[in-house]
């Protein structure tokens, strides 16, 4: 099993790394011939102002008194230059925004390997192509261009007084700089000015996606070569901004990234046509270089060119565009150049993704082979389908070995003659040994198929349909949280399907109630949008009320160990009460802008640390230990909560308690014998391996339930695939000074608390149903790998960083699920089975 785990780790590492070769390679091209417009430029110098994170509406709108916040900019719009809205593209982040402005290309997705902080491939920009450049600004932006935050918005949010007042500061600073520059150059009329923004910002202080508040940025330009203001009587746009901003009589000219805004230029039609022609030739040169690189790396009979832009069509368009310019048909020339640009961009995308299908097929073959092998391992070692098959691995036939060696040699030779990167060898050769291992188990496959034929076809099809439906619900829940609600409602119907409703009505009613109650959470908004501290206090109060009920039962019992348990229970209740106090007092202290009280900070860290120790002091009886874990970890979770999510672990834990009892009732109904009632079971470190049994079909459902509850623990109150889903207010009981690693660790711990609660409950399920951890691991591996194959095809290399990062995160989550499961299963095993004794020797607990 250890060897299988190590090999599985390596295989999954390859599968994970493959997405960066398939989806995240740099689209940038080098080696093009520089292109210049043959006519002299109207300006000698350009001054570019970029207000990081400035929204268009916040700049252009008037305040509550009808006055502008930016009088200098407003005066330019009305008397000196041209204005509009710049429709930026996702990702709406600082680095790609500045690169698009200054270097002229969209996001290089290979930057994901650099954490979106710098571009991994060198590029040209206006800065390194200019004779002299002077730059002032944030170090994390300027350093990107030296090689060849918008803090106000994040802190106070765009609707705040601080954010809006900051616009006045920017406006006054620009006025001073412009005056100084004009005086220095003697007002020679050869300076062009541009004022814009790299991206906007949402009302809650985030950016990165495609919301209009993030993509609509201001664009104001004036000076040499720029048109003066144009008065108009009416304008048609899809929004109502002009009337809101009182700018309906000044011509608004919106611009989109990637298109030369010729309507802004105060120059001749010839200059505009020549500029557009140069732009088209620049992009066509990139297309030619990309095509040549791909053509030289592929065997001639395997190469398929981009048919929409053949060499003859390139020459024809260029020749016709130049002819239009000579005939002074400038509008026709500009239109033809735009057509060429669009075709060249499509061709660049075609050659950039040329190998994607080939590599994807090989990774899919590896995925399917690995999942098949894990399935055969379960069938051979943990089921009764192949009782006649030896558990020992037989020596493979000579013909089979030679056949796969030959296939491997042919694949390697094919890659060698095409001069493929070394990573291609891994992706293409990995399926060979995996499928060799699968075919070695031919006898197992044969016996399993024979066993399946004994099932009625309709029953077999029903099982397959339910399994497929369950997998699809899990996959969809990563994108649509309400699918978790649908799944939990289906879970609530389980007692009626299995006749448990007749056998155990009270337990079944509890299962239905808590399943439906938990189903409410995925329908709630993502945590962090609307904090409500009173819901956190309410959740703590419910936990205290539940603790009082347990406390009453403890007081009725009379022995020394119960007295120790009573003291522990009282201490845990005190921790809950302290957590409620800290949350309430910290919230009010921050509202008064008095900061985080030091005493509150100390108490918070002590409660967090004690949550690991206190459960180990409780008895190892099943329900008492699980309840102790709930109390200890709920006290820590309350400190990290800002709203309704504080109720989530409590409801989830209640459902887990009921699940344990439901599984034992199910096992009894199926005729499997068990030794004790669930109320008298004890967690123990020394499990009797001989008690483990073969797997039944119902165990697949148990494994699916586990995966579903784990996914619910992840996505029940938000989208853990993005840090943007969480409000930094979650960690304010622990620290308020910005510390990304510590804050990230605390938020990750908040995510893991419900996860560990599920794992602790499943420790009890394993105990009550005599289920082997090894077989469980293999079943979860298969389910997660099937899900991972879905997400492999859903990885995105376009859109916002949020969308790209989320698609990667989904893939990573399911790929690492089995690894995380093993680690947290170890933590859950520690929390449930270990016992710390404060007095005397440890008390033994035997099954």
Automatic annotation (TrEMBL):
Q: Which GO terms describe its molecular function?
A: mannose-ethanolamine phosphotransferase activity
Q: Quick one: signal sequence residues?
A: none
Report the EC code(s) recorded for this entry: 2.-.-.-
Q: How does it sit in the membrane?
A: Multi-pass membrane protein
Span-the-membrane segments of this chain are: 357-379, 399-416, 422-439, 486-502, 509-527, 533-554, 596-617, 646-662, 703-721, 741-764, 776-796, 808-831
Gene Ontology cellular-component terms for this entry are: endoplasmic reticulum membrane
Tell where it localizes: Endoplasmic reticulum membrane
Protein's pathway: Glycolipid biosynthesis; glycosylphosphatidylinositol-anchor biosynthesis
One of the GO BP terms on file: GPI anchor biosynthetic process
What the entry lists under Pfam families is as follows: Phosphodiest, PigN
The GPI ethanolamine phosphate transferase 1 C-terminal domain is annotated at 346-800
**What keywords would UniProt list here?**
Endoplasmic reticulum, Glycoprotein, GPI-anchor biosynthesis, Membrane, Transferase, Transmembrane, Transmembrane helix
Q: Which InterPro entries match?
A: Alkaline_phosphatase_core_sf (IPR017850), GPI_EtnP_transferase_1 (IPR007070), GPI_EtnP_transferase_1_C (IPR017852), Phosphodiest/P_Trfase (IPR002591), PIGN_N (IPR037671)
Family the UniProt entry places it in: Belongs to the PIGG/PIGN/PIGO family. PIGN subfamily.
Q: What does this protein do?
A: Ethanolamine phosphate transferase involved in glycosylphosphatidylinositol-anchor biosynthesis. Transfers ethanolamine phosphate to the first alpha-1,4-linked mannose of the glycosylphosphatidylinositol precursor of GPI-anchor.
Record's protein name: GPI ethanolamine phosphate transferase 1
Natural source organism: Canis lupus familiaris
